[in-house]
Design goal:
Layout (H helix, E strand, L loop, with lengths): L1 E4 L11 E5 L2 E5 L24 E3 L5 H4 L2 H6 L5 E5 H32 L10 H8 L2 E4 L5 E4 L2 E7 L7 E9 L2 E7 L22 E5 L13 H14 L4 E4 L5 H15 L10 E4 L1 H10 L9 H8 L10 E3 L3 H7 L7 E4 L9 H8 L6 E4 L8 H6 L4 E4 L2 E4 L3 E4 L9 H9 L7 E5 L3 H13 L4 E2 L6 E3 L4 E4 L4 H4 L11 H19 L5 H21 L1
Parallel strand pairs: 3-4, 4-5, 5-6, 10-11, 11-20, 12-15, 12-16, 13-14, 13-15, 16-19, 20-21
Antiparallel strand pairs: 1-2, 1-22, 2-3, 7-8, 8-9, 9-10, 17-18, 22-23
Length: 535
């Protein structure tokens, strides 16, 4: 009875755990690695065809994003998730596939020019669609036996619509061990969804630690704080740009914005325009506006029963097309823009940052966790300049970090969750946290009497004996050491930036008049000839 760790081990993204029980081999989550967590281009570190089935805690891509890879490489089993998670996966995996395809095409344009071999996307929309065909919707509390010796049920984790912790009973050789997987544990008093439900007994617990060393801080009224930022920013003629995860966080922010308008808290522009600029967020918002029975909290259920849309209000607009998205940065009216991705690593948000970061009158407001190595984390940490689309952008906008809006439980919330167990588990295996958070929370658990271990990538654990079988590989050993950079002059750096800008302009000129393109090419060649003669 073996548990192997294939992702989010002293890291935040790429959650993936594998259990081997009574001849069955199955996964709990199969997430995409992001930021500095990416290893071997997100390749699966096991044979996909050898996996019998998968349990998915929730739809976020860092827990589900490699399911299409699994199917593409030979997986033929069932993928179990709650009904709401299945609905969200139906849009999120296809969106992720689109990003993979676009990123590969962009990379291949550069490779073709450089004479390099072209790359394939991690997976395609067809791969994602095939993965969706393996989904099996489940209800909270429903006990399911996917294989002999394995029984499980989902419990509401309060993190995202349909998110779950898992209670799993594994039987081998006449011995049964109960393993609890926390999934991502939700914060208290989030809008729309319910608070996390607590588990009370298990032999082993696999527990997240995203905020294992931090508190969110006291935010007595998120609505008033958010309203103040909006009021101040719009009043000075700027835009409020909110990088927001398309699924879950965008809908929660819309809930707060509805309340802000109802309470008349923004005086500079009482009916300020709000744009949701993300096709994925638009699809998710439709799901959140539908039947939420069994998933929503009491207040949201009451609003829905009264015929009220809890995330709808006047002057709310959805930008679907690329043209509509571009127009937002041409329109001079101050506005609120919600766009993904939440960590600013891809998508339309990067265009909005390009057009707003350098403007002192604007504000960028973060409402979710920012992993190490991401653009969002750099901005929160106070970087003064960033590069977007080959162009250096000064950071002059006001940067706000609303940590209290996190969908993750903080340090106190995590301790509250584990303390609900009536007896201490034999061992708590601490995952899904950056090294300082993960190791810090592991030490905190040990200080209050728990046996706690923070496993490494490819580490393994024997659930029958409670022994570590393989220590695995520390995260730092998996990251290539940065080459020592030679010092270059500011003028040379400026030259390289100018060359990149020239390439960007050339790429955007496709489709122009042949006469104009020929003239442009002659000017570039003439300039090159001039500088080559100087050598």
């Amino acid at each position: 009875m073996k548990l192997t760790f294939y992702g989010a081990d002293k890291e935040v993204t790429g959650s993936c755990h594998c259990l081997e029980v009574s001849g069955s081999r199955f996964l709990v989550d199969c997430g995409l690695q992001q930021g500095q967590d990416v290893k071997e281009d997100n390749k699966l570190p096991f044979a996909a065809a050898a996996i019998d089935f998968v349990l998915v805690t929730h739809a976020h891509i860092d827990h589900s994003g490699r399911l299409p890879c699994l199917v593409k490489e030979g997986f033929r089993g069932k993928i179990y998730a709650t009904g709401a998670t299945c609905r969200l996966l139906s849009i999120m995996l296809l969106d992720s596939a689109h990003i993979q395809e676009v990123d590969a095409e962009n990379e291949n344009r550069k490779d073709r020019r450089a004479g390099r071999e072209e790359v394939e996307p991690l997976y395609t929309a067809q791969d994602a669609q095939q993965a969706l065909e393996h989904l099996v919707p489940c209800e909270y509390g429903q006990e399911i036996e996917p294989a002999p010796g394995v029984r499980f049920r989902f419990v509401d984790a309060g993190h995202l619509l349909g998110s779950a912790s898992i209670e799993l009973w594994a039987t081998e050789g006449g011995v049964t061990k109960k393993v609890a997987f926390s999934g991502d544990i939700g914060n208290l008093h989030q809008p729309i969804i319910r608070d996390p439900q607590y588990l009370h007994d298990a032999d082993y617990v696999v527990m997240e630690s995203t905020y294992g060393n931090r508190e969110h801080g006291k935010n007595e009224d998120y609505v008033e704080e958010l309203a103040q930022v909006i009021d101040t920013t719009l009043g000075r003629g700027g835009n409020v740009v909110i990088p927001s995860f398309a699924v879950g966080r965008t809908q929660e922010v819309l809930y707060f914005l509805r309340e802000i308008k109802e309470r008349g808290l923004v005086h500079s522009a009482p009916d300020f325009p709000v744009y949701v600029d993300s096709p994925l967020a638009a699809e998710a918002t439709r799901i959140y506006s539908g039947d939420l029975r069994g998933y929503a909290d009491e207040e949201t259920v009451r609003l829905i029963r009264s015929g009220y849309n809890p995330i709808g209000f006047s002057n709310l607009k959805i930008s679907q097309s690329v043209e509509e998205s571009k127009w937002l940065n041409e329109d001079l009216e101050p506005k609120v823009i919600l766009s993904s991705s939440g960590m600013c690593e891809a998508g339309r948000i990067r265009h909005h940052l390009k057009h707003n970061l350098w403007r002192e009158e604007c504000a960028v407001l973060f409402v979710g966790y920012q992993a190490n190595g991401t653009l969002g984390r750099l901005l929160i940490d106070g970087v003064e300049q960033v590069k977007l689309f080959g162009e250096s952008i000064a950071v002059r906008a006001q940067i706000y970090n609303f940590r209290g809006l996190s969908a993750h439980a903080d340090h106190t919330g995590l301790l509250r969750w584990i303390s609900a167990f009536e007896e201490k588990p034999d061992c708590v295996l601490v995952v899904h946290g950056e090294p300082t958070a993960c190791l810090g929370f592991t030490e905190d658990l040990e200080q209050v009497g728990y046996r706690a271990i923070a496993p490494n990538y490819l580490g393994s654990f024997d659930l029958l004996t409670g022994r570590v079988l393989d220590e695995g590989i520390e995260p730092e050993a998996l990251r290539p050491k940065a080459a020592k950079k030679r010092k270059v002059s500011t003028a040379y750096t400026r030259l390289l930036n100018a060359a990149q800008r020239l390439m960007d302009v050339a790429e955007r000129s496709e489709g122009g008049a042949n006469k104009d393109l020929a003239k442009f090419a002659d000017q570039i060649l003439s300039l090159c000839d001039k500088w080559e003669r100087r050598d």
